[in-house]
Amino acid sequence: MRLPLTLVIGGLLAAIFVVAAGLSLVWTPFPTDTVTVSARLQPPSALHWLGTDHLGRDIVSMIMVGARTSIAVAVIAVGMGVVLGVPLGLVAAATRGGLVDELIMRGNDLVFAFPALVIAILITAVFGPSAINAIIAIGIFNTPVFARVTRGAALSLWTLDYIMAARVAGKGRVRISAEHILPNIANLLIVQGTIQFSLGILAEAGLSYVGLGAQPPIPSWGRMLAESQTMVALAPHVALFPGIAIVLTVLGLNLMGDGLRDLLDPRLRRAR
User: Fold this and answer.
1) Are 141 and 181 in contact (CB under 8 A)?
2) Percentage helix, strand, coil, to 5, in the chain?
3) Which of 108, 116, 176, 258 has its CA 20 to 30 A from that of 128?
4) Which pLDDT does position 216 carry in this prediction?
5) For the stretch 44-57, what's the b/e string if a residue is b when 16 or more beta carbons lie within 10 angstroms of its beta carbon?
6) Please, are residues 35 and 55 in contact by the beta-carbon 8 Å criterion?
7) DSSP state letter for 39
8) CA distance readout (Å), 256 to 8, 151, 190, 262
9) How many domains does the chain have?
10) Do 9 and 255 form a contact (C-beta atoms < 8 A)?
11) HEC sequence for 77-132
12) Residue 38: inside a domain, yes or no?
């Protein structure tokens, strides 16, 4: 079976940053916690491939460790959304039209009224800014997304003949949801998870940019952009390369999502 081109390109782009993040656990070209004033704002060279920032830190090393931060935050936040949102969506679909369904969906609407940035501000106002609080904020925002997607996909299955046969056979709603509904919507959830992963990286960068994400000395792409905004005219590479890292990672994950949709959707497979 031929893989979609978007999946191949997206997978390669995403793999570059995943490998960089994994490699940063054991090696970086230079330490990211060492300030070298004499080497500040150096342009790209054979020694510093992407140059140095305003504190003399190597930008390649900062981007590698920043990838680790962004990926970790996004993965945990998306996982939180899946763990909380998918069961809520299954319950809402199983009790469609009832009080439980109405409570779950109106609760989702309430959460949707507060973007991740606003939720992060509320959390950090109480507990202070940190990567953990950024994860909680993004995870809370992801929960209603997965709940809505799960409910919408599950509702279309509850009217099918094989579900009716399972109900006639005496299976309860919980068992039907676990054995028949969830496996048949897993493909859709995988695609949605990929999309939310890319949005999670963007959200983490945005929160770090305004000082609500990972705190120094932990490198973060968003904070690298925030720290470089006053030096764009003097040393544009300091802002350029973290921005490119964010763009390529999000682009790769979105292409992966499109490719997975084409690969996993049986209707699209038949069309090809």
Assistant:
1) no
2) 75, 0, 25
3) 108
4) 86
5) eeeebebbbbbebb
6) yes
7) G
8) 7, 24, 11, 10
9) 1
10) yes
11) HHHHHHHHHHHHHHHHHHCCCCHHHHHHHHHHHHHHCCCHHHHHHHHHHHHCCCHH
12) no
Residue labelled with tokens 């060279």 = 45
Answer yes or no: is 41 within a domain.
no
What's phi and psi for 83, nearest 5 deg?
A: -60, -40
d(CA 155, CA 150): 8
Q: Is residue 44 part of a domain?
A: no
204 occurs within a structural domain: yes
Q: Peptide bond preceding 217: is omega within 30 degrees of 0, i.e. cis?
A: yes
Query: With contact defined as beta carbons under 8 Å apart, do 199 and 210 qualify?
Result: no
Degrees to nearest 5, angle at CA 13 with 258 and 48? 155
CA angle 202/243/263 to nearest 5° reads 55
18-27, 124-133, 217-226, 252-261: range with lowest mean pLDDT: 124-133
More confident residue, 12 or 4: 12
Cα 241 from chain centre: 20
* pLDDT recorded at residue 92: 94
Closest CA to 85 of 150, 135, 137: 150
Range of the domain at 143: 5-32+50-271
pLDDT of residue 267: 55
Name residue, tokens 């500040």. Answer: 40
Show the tokens assigned to 215: 């705190």
Adjacent-strand bridge partners of 52: 58
Whole-number pLDDT of residue 1: 62
In the numeric block, which tokens belong to residue 116? 């991740």
Residue 236 pLDDT more than 80? Answer: yes
